[in-house]
Write a structure and sequence with these properties.
Blueprint lengths: L9 E2 L22 E6 L8 H11 L4 E6 L4 H13 L5 E5 L3 H9 L3 E4 L8 H8 L4 E4 L6 H4 L3 E4 L3 H13 L2 H18 L2 H15 L9 E2 L1
Parallel strand pairs: 2-3, 2-5, 3-4, 5-6, 6-7
Antiparallel strand pairs: 1-8
Length: about 220
């Protein structure tokens, strides 16, 4: 924004994430093996080819990768053909899900993968963290806090980088992944929950009216 020549103050307020009323009722199911997943639109910008290639290279034992979402039929067919070409048998295309079912599926994952080339926010990342699931996200997303808050991996989105992060997640104990998920949920509640975003908006307007000091999220 600054590189474009604008010098005015800028307020940076996170996208508000709604906290479902049923969230407390969703329990992380115990399951054998390791389950990774992707949630979102099946589209080239999501860089799913690199994720599929990374998954195929690892050949993790007793593991599965769920691709949750839908997209253009021709693109989905390309991804399915890549899975066949790589002779990968443990990848499933689940189709579109929403509401409570979406959070149940997120909670069933050991890690969510978001290998996008670019995301302005990445709602599925916040939703996965809210469900208590650690996240692997590319540096094309604004989620460096995954590293600083120790609730996931913020890394490159090439196949070797994704494979390394997946292997790291696989090597952790269930207890370690659970602790990461709890830290991730705390991160979202502190920074992205809808009440927090609403409070930031109120503080911004009070500042503009001269009723409050400049908030920490306003940058000169």
């Amino acid at each position: 924004y600054r590189d474009m020549g604008f010098s005015n103050p800028v307020a940076v307020i996170p996208n508000p994430v709604r906290i479902p009323e049923y969230l407390a009722d969703i329990r992380r199911p115990g399951h054998e093996g390791f389950r990774a997943g992707f949630l979102g639109r099946l589209h080239p910008i999501k860089n799913l080819e690199a994720l599929i290639t990374a998954w195929g290279q690892l050949r993790l034992p007793n593991a599965e990768l769920l691709l949750i979402g839908d997209g253009a039929p021709e693109y989905k067919a390309r991804l399915e053909e890549l899975v066949r070409a790589e002779s990968i048998s443990n990848i499933s295309f689940t189709g579109f899900v929403s509401g409570r079912r979406k959070y149940e599926m997120l909670a069933s994952l050991d890690v969510l993968c978001a290998p996008s080339h670019q995301e302005n926010f990445g709602m599925s990342i916040a939703e996965a963290l809210l469900a208590g699931t650690p996240v692997i996200a590319s540096r094309g997303t604004p989620w460096e806090a995954l590293n600083t808050r120790r609730c996931g991996w913020w890394c490159g989105n090439d196949s070797p980088s994704l494979a390394a992060a997946l292997e790291n997640a696989f090597s952790l104990s269930p207890q370690e992944r659970l602790a990461m998920g709890e830290r991730g949920r705390a991160l979202v509640m502190e920074t992205c929950a809808a009440p927090h975003a609403a409070d930031c908006m109120k503080r911004l307007y009070r500042y503009l009216l001269g009723q409050e000091a400049k908030p920490e999220f306003v940058y000169e």
